[in-house]
Structures are given as structure tokens and as C-alpha cells.
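Take a specimen:
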Amino acid sequence: MMKKLILLFSLIFTGEIIFSQSVAQQRCDGFDMGMNISNWLEAYWQSGYPTANGYTREDLAKMKQAGIKSIRLAIGFASVTDTLAPYNVDTTHALFTRIDSVISWCDDLELNMIIDNHHQWDIFNQNWRTKIDRFAHMWSVVSSHYKYLDPERYTFELLNEPAFGIENDSLAFVFNRAIDSIRQHTTAHTLIVSPNLSGNGGAFAALTPLADTNLIYTWHSYDPYQFTHQGFSWASPSTPLGETFPGTFDQGLYYSWNTVITWRNTYNKPVFLGEFGTGTYGDAASRYNWIEAFGSRIDSFSMSWFYWDWRWDFSMFNSHVVSEDSVLPCFKRALHLYGDTVISSVTNLKAEDLQVQLYPNPASANTGCNLMVSMAEKSTLDVYDITGRHLSSRYSLRANYFAGAAIQQRSVFG
């Protein structure tokens, strides 16, 4: 049996060649492990919207205990924006009171927060010219209202899951207009954009980066939809029970990941996974396989993420009871929750079985890597840098196998 051990190394280089990141990239990396706050401030269909008791400070405190660093707050700004010019935005509405409460909780708990503009915009190829003024004005008001927020911890997401029915070049006009309206109030805050096709990873194949340099790009993945959404009465199209993972429809998942990573590496732009999740109707073994597939790619490509969702249809807890005792072990391990930080598919690996030496570190140009691995079975060892780039492989590792490698600075960050 062949096992694979994946190690991620963070190498520090000093001297004349200094690796630097854009502000947007630093903030994207700072999201780290995130959670979507769903079925509340975007849920315009609920009686008494927006309800006062959707989430509490205690909920966010429990998220932080699990290791969550950031939240993405889904908000229905369209619900408080007039549909006729001059498109008044009612900032006295209870929706803003609820948002302000979440902001105060994030400040207290030192959590990052994405202010996410979610449902009801319905912007398509045939109508975007008539929608753009309302959309841009809403963002002018909202960005002015929240420009006081610390830009290191608060970001604005322009539009959740842009429609299938709009081309990326038309969407670019809509986004650029909104960006211009926001930049009149704040140039410091990073903005978040995504491609059409509901932000699916495959849409990045036809995406050209926008001109604003303080942007982060995001994508969503529920691939394969037939598995993750099975059994939900609200799913469209409806998906019957019984689909497994791996299964018939898996190729879209791998295509999406490959497309996003290729785009990220080609344009050198910050990208994070804004939504992903698997519904509770899937069988336990398949849910395990699915979250393992995502967790391994998140680790390999060093990508920040936001799971959907905490305690509802895609819950990662037994019986929706939020605690370390009730979290599903496969989710805990794959997403490194509650302090589970081991990034390895090898079971029962003891500290004395693995010795890692990086030399010199810091380094000005090159560094070396020595590995001493004690394993009874044949294995492979893959080494990745912190950007997710594959550096080297060592095959047929056996007990007390020694692997050495010299890693050039260009290989790591070039």
C-alpha cells in the first residue's frame, strides 16, 4: 500500500531579494479559516425579517473556539434599497442595527469580517444597464456608512454569486461602476469580486482581472451539485437521494480547482474559497470523502476558506449541536478545527518518525531541506511552498529513508 505524506514549508528569505505581498494578498491570507453567517440577514423570505435572534455573540465566540478567524456576513442590502431613482438606502432600517451588532462582536472577539451583498439583484445581460445605477448607489451609501471600519479586518464583497445570465465583460462594467462609487469614500478598504456562473471555479477560465489593484477574487464550489445538494426540497434543480462521492459527477470539482489555481498563478491575484459545503443528506462515508478532497486541496494550495454553513443544512456537527465533542471527526481533521493542525494523510505518525531540517533559514537565495522519515510502508513525499506550488517529490520511502533537497529562492517564490 502506498501512502502519501504532504509537508508545507514556510521559508523566510532575507537580503537583497525580498518577497513581498500586495495589501490585498495579505488580507486574503489573513482570512485563513472562515465561516459564513447564513440564513439570517440575507433571508428576506423569513417572517419578521431581519429577525433579532438569528445569531449571537456566543455563536461567534464558539466559532473562534473552533479556530475560525473570519466571518462572511451575508446581507440583503437590496431589501432596503428603493427600486426607483434616486434609489434611497434606508440606513435606519433594523437590518443595519443587526449588522452593527455583528461588527461589535467581531471587534470584541478580534475576528475579520466580510460585508457580503447577497440576494435579489438579478443582474443579467439584458438588464444590467438599467440596474447599474441602483447597484452603484447602494454601494456608495454602504461604503460611506462603514468607511470608519478598520480596513485590515473589514472588507466589502460587491455581489454574491453573479448570475449565469451575464457575461464577464458586462459584469466588469457593473463592478467597475460600483468600485468607482466606493472609492469616492474609501481607497483603503479591499473589495471582493467574483466571476459569473454563480462564482463557479470554471468561470475563471474566461475572467480578466479588473483594473483596481486593491481587489480580492473569490469562488464557490458545491461540486458535484448532485451529491452536495441531494434531498433538499429547495434545491433547483432537485436532486434525489442516493448520490455518493466519489461518484458519477466528480469531474467538475477537479476542473474547478484546476481552473482557479491556473488563473491565480497566471495573474498573481489573491483568491479565496468563499463558499463550499456538503449537505447533511449525504451518507457519512461520502461526506468524509468529500471534505477530505477539499481539505487536501486547501492545504496544498494554501487557500483561505469560508464554509457554508455553521449549523443548518450543511452542518459539520452531530445533531447540529455546536461543540468540539460533537464536531464530525472528518471535518475537524480536514479543516484543522479545534487545534487539529496536522497536515498529513498518514495515520499514527509519531514525532520521532519525522525530522525536518531547513538550512539556512532565513536565507538570501537558496535553502536546503533534509528529511528523516521512519515508515514501514512504501510512501511518497511531496513538498509544497506556502503559495501551494509543488517543489519536489520523493518516492518509495522506507524505514529510516533520508531525503535531501536544495530549494532555490526562484523555485519558491518566482
